[in-house]
């Protein structure tokens, strides 16, 4: 099961009831915060999300509305007596781009580990050891005005476990859970392989967070068959398509076209321009192209369960 | 008339419904923002305060909860197409302390003028020419753990204008308003002085903002006879007096004692610790010492008019 909370759904500047775009993802008790604009800690509290033990902050790019919440959050984690390292990942230039904010945050009693990403797959447990080994974060280049990334989170699901087969093969019960996770196990009774007791791999969970971007091929490629596409949709009107593209953004309709081409299950729009006061007014511009579209709002929670 | 809005009333970290301590003051259309913690721009919008044309940001000290809102606000002012210079004043070390945040904000299309203050009076129109010449900002050293200032804003009020006397003296009507403001005026008919047509100086308006501080003599000295004392009151319980002092803060009761000694008219408490969930619960600890005390809340507005 994976829980997603939209902490904020605004772009550029916050509105009284709309914080800057930030997405929180929880999987097996481990957590990722995508972007951290000014006010993220406050908006997270409003959404009843605790950031005290956040494992990874994954930044899509370094514009202020996506990172200015960092110094405040980092100091709050200190107040909360955090001691475990915090990984902050982001596109090329992360060190230089975050350096003033880290300087502003001052000395902290826990380690900040910056991880520069340049596309590609990353087993999450290589960044945060306690992350499930079945969880992968793939980042891909997007098309904003600066170095920018989108993220694809996947949680694999192993095949169904066959306890009769396990008993038949004399596999000790104590190692069943390891085999269920897809690991080979060496025991005194011999070496056992997951494929001996697991059925065909089953469909996992896939979630994509676009960050700020104009339309681009990677969006479709990496969103293919995703269960949930959380897409920027800065502009509401179809007529703003060119303006959106110029500024490295998308309209509701363009986001819906991506969702349709990528055959995703559900599209959730976010990162609304401050001028889009009520996103629902423009929703039809998306649903007419891709029906299963919702407008995100601050505090919206989406739970994704394995099928069957 | 002077309008004061408490934009945020929290200390250390924001609560879901309590932004970090920040006070907005408006006088004759000119404005001052005292402190700018993370989330100030959002909390200002909630309080229906526009920061687009803020004239002066006066910082009490450089702890994160009082300054981390700066880069976001500065970029938002850019989006709002500000071109007029912005003065940011604060205690010793302002240049070094704000440098990372200004670097994070990046290049801006308007000038930032940093003004290091070290105590003393400052006619506001020397900082911001359009400020009333009758408005003065006095800053005074306070007792926090770092270089820190409190601010005393005063608006003088000239004596009552006597139109009969002005006519009798043959003063042209066109210069009456200048004389009413206390300025001497040279005309073809001769030089006229305000004291020729104005009665005794009348009581003006005085407002003090303490910033973060433990008890200190300056608080009483500079708050003397103030119409409004906006005082930090981080801790609610009287028993926390020592703890508060250790941390450079005050309890509700200590703030009330200052108000009483300084003979202020009204005390407004702010900068509540995140543990003070409902400040009203502790209000009696203050009112039992100084009756006219209120607990500030985000968005609270206080209007001060001249007497009579």
Characterize the structure shown:
The structure is a homodimer of 308-residue chains. In chain A, the strands form three sheets. In chain A, strands 6-5-4-3-2-1-16 form a seven-stranded mixed β-sheet. In chain A, strands 7-8-9-12-13-14-15 form a seven-stranded mixed β-sheet. Chain A has twelve helices and 16 strands. The longest helix of chain A has 12 residues, at 94-105. In chain A, strand 3 (30-34), helix 1 (40-46) and strand 4 form a beta-alpha-beta unit. In chain A, helix 3 crosses helix 4 (94-105). The first copy, chain A, has helices at residues 40-46, 64-67, 70-79, 94-105, 124-127, 163-168, 176-180, 194-197, 217-223, 241-246, 252-261, 283-287; strands at residues 2-8, 22-27, 30-34, 56-58, 86-90, 112-116, 120-123, 135-141, 149-157, 185-187, 190-192, 202-209, 228-232, 266-270, 293-295, 301-304. Chain A is 26% helix and 27% strand. Chain A has 308 residues and is α/β, with parallel strands linked by helices. Chain A is globular, with a radius of gyration of 21 Å. The mean pLDDT of chain A is 95. The A-B interface holds A 12-17, 19, 37-39, 41-42, 45-46, 64-65, 68-69, 71-72, 75-76, 79, 100-101, 103-106 and B 12-17, 19, 37-39, 41-42, 45-46, 64-65, 68-69, 71-72, 75-76, 79, 100-101, 103-106.
């Amino acid at each position: 099961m994976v829980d997603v909370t939209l902490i904020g759904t605004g772009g550029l500047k916050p509105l009284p009831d709309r914080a800057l775009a930030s997405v929180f993802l929880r999987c097996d008790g481990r957590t990722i915060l995508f972007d951290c604009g000014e006010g993220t800690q406050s908006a997270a509290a409003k959404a009843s999300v605790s950031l005290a033990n956040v494992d990874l902050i994954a930044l899509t790019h370094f514009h202020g509305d996506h990172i200015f919440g960092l110094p405040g959050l980092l100091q709050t984690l200190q107040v909360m007596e955090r001691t475990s390292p915090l990984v902050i990942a982001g596109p090329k230039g992360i060190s230089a781009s975050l350096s003033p904010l880290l300087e502003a945050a001052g000395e902290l009693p826990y380690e900040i580990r910056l991880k520069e990403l340049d596309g590609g797959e990353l087993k999450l447990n290589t960044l945060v050891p306690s992350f499930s080994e079945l969880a992968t974060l793939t980042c891909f280049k997007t098309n904003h005005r600066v170095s920018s990334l989108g993220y694809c989170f996947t949680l694999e699901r192993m095949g169904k476990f066959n306890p009769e087969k396990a008993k038949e093969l004399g596999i000790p019960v104590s190692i069943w859970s390891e085999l269920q996770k897809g690991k080979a196990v060496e025991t005194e009774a011999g070496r056992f392989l997951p494929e001996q007791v697991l059925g065909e791999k089953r469909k996992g969970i896939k979630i994509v967070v676009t960050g700020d971007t104009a339309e681009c091929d990677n969006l479709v490629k990496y969103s293919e068959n995703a269960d949930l596409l959380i897409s920027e949709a800065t502009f509401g009107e179809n007529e703003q398509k060119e303006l959106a593209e110029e500024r490295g953004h998308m309209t509701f309709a363009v986001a819906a076209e991506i969702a349709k081409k990528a055959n995703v299950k559900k599209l959730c729009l976010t990162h609304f321009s401050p001028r889009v006061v009520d996103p629902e007014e423009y929703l039809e511009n998306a649903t007419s192209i891709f029906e299963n579209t919702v407008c995100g709002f601050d505090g919206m929670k989406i739970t994704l369960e394995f099928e069957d």
